[in-house]
Structure formats: C-alpha cells, structure tokens
Amino acid sequence: MSCCFSPPSPVQKAAAVQVSAAPVAEAVVYPGLTAQAQVTSRNISSMAAQLSARVTALPVEAGQKIAKGSVAARLDCRDYQIALKQAQAGLESAEARLKLSSLQMKRSEEPASKGFISGHALDRKRTEIDIAQADRNLVASHVASAQSNVGKCVISAPFAAIVESVPGNVGELASPGTPLVTLWDIQTLEVSAQVQAKDAESLAVADDIEFQTVYGAYPLKLKRVSPALSGTSRTQEARLIFTKETPNRAPPGKCNGRARPRTCRRICWWRATASWACSCSKANAHASCRLPRRRRAAPRRWELRTA
20 to 30 Å CA-CA from 138: which of 84, 113, 155, 224? Predict the structure, then answer.
C-alpha cells in the first residue's frame, strides 16, 4: 500500500498564521481607569477688611508666594489709633476714681468703729467703690475693643500661601467684608476628581492611584468619594491627598517639585484583576502586546480577553 502526499494549496498557505508564545505573567496588564481632575486646596481664603477704612498698601501681587504672617494689606488706622488713646485715657480716669473711693473707704473705717460715722454713710462708701470698679471694667473693655480694631488695620496671611488675586485697590474705601486678597493654602493641597458613578466603587478599592501631569505622576491616596451626583455631568466628586511631594516619574527637563494649584489633568487607578490586553497582528502576535508596567504580584482574579 502506498500513500501520496500532495503539497499544500495556496489557500492553505494563506490561512497559516505565525504565533509566538510567552508566559502569561509577562503578557498581562492591569486595566486602568481615568477621570478628569485638578489640584485644589482645602483653604482658599478671601482676606477681607473687618472695619471701614481706606486701603493704604497692598504689598503682594497675584502669583506671589508668601510665608505665614506676611502682610497682605494695610488700612488707614489713624482714626482707630485716636479712639484707642481716648479709651486708654478713660481707663486711667476710671482707675483714679477707684483709687480715691478705696482711700476714702479706708479712712472711714476707723471713725466708723468709734461711732463717729453712721453705718448708712459707710454703706455709701462701699457702694461707691463697687460703682468705680464697674466703671473701670467697662472702660477696660473699650480699650480692648479699640486695640482689636487697631490690629485689624494690618491683614496678614494666616498660612503659607500663593496669592491668587488682589481684588482690592490702594486708595479705595473698604467696608467690612470687602475682599482685598485671595490666598491659596499650599500646605493643604489635594486633588478633586470627577468620577463616573459606575467607576466610584473601583476607585475605593484601587491599590494604586496616580495624578498624571506633564510634570510627572504623583502618587495619591483616596480621602473620600461624595455620594451626591453632579447635576450636569452626573459624576461624583472624589477627594484625594498626595502621599509624596514629588512625582514618581518625571519627564526629563520637567519640574519634579510639588504639584501646582489648579493643575488640570487626570487621575489613573488600577484594579486588582489582570487582563489580557493584546492587539496582535497576524505577522507577529506577541510583539504588539502591551507588557505590564505595574506590579507583577499574582492577581486575585483572572479576566482574559482578546482585543
């Protein structure tokens, strides 16, 4: 018995596909999700005037970085300094009357013990001391109020900050509540992200979260996810905090310092499940697979899919 083998037809040759093999641990990636985000601050303070006075100086400019306690604005304080001096003079007068009443009471005690002064007159002396003491306390409160007003003539930064804007103008009359300087607290920077409702749960259990910018990728930690939905975009706001002041990966020549306020980019987070994320061509099935750039620990669950 003899067998004949015919060569493969052109159709069979065209149907042949080249493939290559690789360990699954080298070919899987962890699927990531993204959301629009920007850097904000927990303290964005509008430093306003607390009394009615004319603005005499605004020694800061928009974009300037200032230290805690730096003077942000000055007001004309002459009227309030005059009021303080008047209150201090009233306090000295009240203390003098109190001292006089105390001396008179002391001089009346010995004659009263011998019966030369009636008990009714002695009671009047004691009452005069109480009235003088009350007057002295009242004027002392006026002095404290005047001192407080003088202190409000200088507006200082309550924290290390970046000056966002200076809406006030030198020479204008400021009334209580008039905004003069807007400050961003640079010690309480955090990230605000708008997350799709379907992705909020995965963000809560994500192992790695990053804020990706042109300056690098900053590691984050989830602080909270708001349960309320936005009325327009139907997203949930997530607040995240920086775990490091410098990025993990910074492009060459880019700033690798702290994230800048109002930086608008995106956050990325990775699930704990692996995914087969290949876009393989017929010529080389493995060459175009995206190799994992994240952790290589064994995932909790495998989810294999073809792209």
Answer: 155
Contact criterion met (CB below 8 Å) for 187 and 159: yes
pLDDT tens-digit profile of 90-120?
Answer: 999 999 999 998 888 888 777 777 777 777 7
CATH classification of 44-76+153-184, choosing from 3.40.50.300, 3.40.190.10, 2.40.50.100, 2.60.40.1220? Answer: 2.40.50.100
78-139, CATH topology level = Helix Hairpins (1.10.287)
Query: What pLDDT is stored for residue 231 in this prediction?
Result: 80
Residue 274, pLDDT above cutoff 90: no
Between the two ends of the chain, the Cα-to-Cα distance in Å is 49
CA-derived radius of gyration, the chain: 38
